[in-house]
Amino acid sequence: MTSPDQSAPSAPADTSLANRYGGQKRSLTPAVKRAIAGGALAVGIGFLAWVSTSNSLSSVTFKDVGYSTPDATVAEVDFQVTREPGTAVKCAVKALDSKYAVVGWKVVDIPADAPEGSEGTADGGRTVSQRVTVRTESPSVSGVVDSCWATDGSGQKV
């Protein structure tokens, strides 16, 4: 006679789940959590300091002073550029129509040497006033400086 098959003894549920999915994960100690939070805070403060100082160290700034439109094909733009002494600068100047579409564009070179007599000015010749004539393809109602950047002696952007 044969005896019925006996089933193997089953393992407790906790053991079988641990074998299948792994044991419980250990949590981080409070000291490790504080160290991670301190490191993240230091990185965040360093990033904010870098962002705030990198923008303020820009050596070229510009300010629109005015514009005029003597006729339908020309716009004159007046602006000031402030840069470190001895720095050559290029500025992109644009003329706009009533719908803010660009109808004229010109890149202007501002040499590194300060104009004569500017050494006695309050800022030592750092600020230079410019008047630029921009040809337009249709009547313009505004003229502005789009951007300015420092260049090396060959005209390449620095």
UniProtKB/TrEMBL annotation:
<dbReference type="InterPro" id="IPR025443">
    <property type="entry name" value="DUF4307"/>
</dbReference>
<feature type="region of interest" description="Disordered">
    <location>
        <begin position="1"/>
        <end position="24"/>
    </location>
</feature>
<protein>
    <recommendedName>
        <fullName>DUF4307 domain-containing protein</fullName>
    </recommendedName>
</protein>
<dbReference type="Pfam" id="PF14155">
    <property type="entry name" value="DUF4307"/>
</dbReference>
